[in-house]
Amino acid sequence: LSLCAVPALAAPKSKSPPAPSPSPPAPPPVPAVEPSAGSAAGASTFGPAVGIIVAGGVFGLLFALFQLYHVAKIEVEPGKRAEGYSNMEDGSDTNSKLKLYEVYLAIQDGAKAFLAAEYVLCGIFVVVFGAIVFVLTSNTPDGFNMLIGGCTAASFVVGALTSIVSGYAGMMVAVYSNARTTIAAEGENEAGWSASFNTAFRAGGVMGFSLTSLAMLVLLGLIGALASIIPGSLSEDEDFAKVLFECVAGYGLGGSCIAMFGRVGGGIYTKAADVGADLAGKVVSGIPEDDPRNPATIADNVGDNVGDVAGMGSDLFGSYAESTCAALIVAASSAEMVAAGWGAILFPVCFSSFGIVVCALASFLATDISPVKKETDVETVLKVQLAVTALLMTGCTYPLAYFLLPAQFTIGGVLATPFSAWICITAGLIGGCVVGFITEYYTSHSYTPVREVAQSCETGAATNIIYGLALGYKSAVIPIGVIAIVTFISFTYAAMYGVALGALGFLGTLATCLSIDVYGPVCDNAGGIAEMAELPAHVRDKTDALDAAGNTTAAIGKGFAIGSAALVSLALFGGFVTRIGMEASGVNVLKPITFCMLFIGAMIPYWFTAMTMKSVGTAAMAMVKEVARQFAEIPGLLEGTPGHGPPDHAKCIKISTDASLKEMVPPGMLVILSPILVGALLGVHAVSGLLVGALVSGVQLAISQSNTGGAWDNAKKYVEKGCVSILVNGVPVAQRKGSELHKAAVCGDTVGDPLKDTSGPAINIVMKLMAIISLVFADYFMSINGGHGYLNVQ
Hints:
By secondary structure, the chain is mainly α. The protein has 23 helices and six strands.
């Protein structure tokens, strides 16, 4: 990361600013414009930009360590006590403490085993696909260029490794913090609520701030390294920036490929265990969720971390990397941006650095200034956290844009200003909050839609399924409208650069979003540990309330991820169109091959969903059969007879692991190979149709699936709280666990599990990955019959 040693970056030649022009002409002649205060020195603004990025990244890493320090103050091992925290010496027997510690270690071991197996396969993929990237990207319209191919392949490997490190670190933090949240929840009244919430939220913060900081610093280091290898410099060669950032795009490709396997593999693992445990336990055998007698509970708790932490971390890392790469590629096409120097070019990365600091300062609002003191505070505190962070980012962005960007710059045929950039980012920030809060409305049992779904269980599982599906479809209406508005505003003010900035606006509060996302599975694990360790009921009551809020906030996080993925995909598509030389003429949708591929592209998310859903179903069937076998063959296990043999958790973990590793390959290959084969055989016009079709259908399918599953989950929890009543002889009777109404709610939750945690969240990676692959391999496609493919389709 020491860029001072990189000549191409650290010592760009100063360049005189362009002369002012009162009325700039339309492109292609580049208008001479007056530079802003921040770009008046031309390339000399590179220094402040790097200072902003490095300072924000280092601050984020230090803040993550600060959060981890607070979490680590709670001791888990029996016999140890941390000042100010209970370690269950009082009010719980020694047996419960030992059980808690055993469950805690078992979840850690299961998580490590799965990630080790998954990342071995990912490592093989990185080597093989990295070689493919090298060979294909070396094929350019101007001939075979090993330097371009090598730099792109290196960027791909760096992005993949960073994604792996991000996912693994987040997973380890989550399984380190789950039992600590359980212990903190043992406290009575306000102290118990504050301590348990803060522990889970800070655990999320460790991942949120470390991931965003690491992603930003590695990207900066990669840019510095490649700039020292690629011939030329920013101040002397107008094509230098284009070549550099087209190679850097491999960073986003590597991150998204690993995110695809992490999301799909982790989603299959977690939902195979979750669905299997629910069906075998709650539905068939009538025992509570996370009951220690159920052999699938450890696999279920491991799965919460595999899918919702490691998978989500890799997913949002990919979104950040791709949106930033898209912004950098489009910025490199503007002569004024290049003339203004590194400060203007690196503006998107500087914006992310500001976001880290703002999110860190805002986090004290949730943990110290206005902490959680009772159950009803949880959702409020999390929502306020998101809103305040977005508001602060809105205020901070304009001074940064004014300082770094030129006073005027032409990009994609649009004359833009720092104010234009600020409008685009603000639209993304506001749009992200709106999508997030609309998602909350449709997935939280605090509001009417989920309560209606819960009440529909009165007449059985069928009506519950019908209500839940309708809710999911309806919940897509407003978010799609918001995404469309943000796209229109961003494109109007700064063309595709504005769309990329809008996507970054969605991700402007990434550290906070990740904190809230990881908070959910940590609380879910905490509740499972409390149940398996047979702790007092008030502990499970707290963790259930925290988990219910976590389900809603996880849905909010998925809304942010899906919304940003749509904008990122569009921005990457703009980069693809620019790279193949169709920016001026545009893509002709009525061209036969383009129109035909719209249908094929729209089908891809459905094909992908079918594959992942069936994979979960197949693995869940194997899990149910294994649990039934153990109940039948281990005397006294189901009945809970004292002295009965222990359940075989390892067998259930193996079923989930084997299924996920086997089943994650076909969906991943579908997404990765589709644009490559279409581009090579049918040409760039066919790829354009494929990408647009996948984007338009995928974003709506992802929103509806995620929200349907989230609503069913919280409807079940609403029933378990005793909030749903039916009339018996004219008298309202509350329905709780074990009732027929509850069984119907469990069926809905079980059906929704793969929708909200496997297929739905993974579709946003489908959109992004297809787009970034097309962008990275654009020159290869253009080298085949002038972009018409081997079949020479005209």
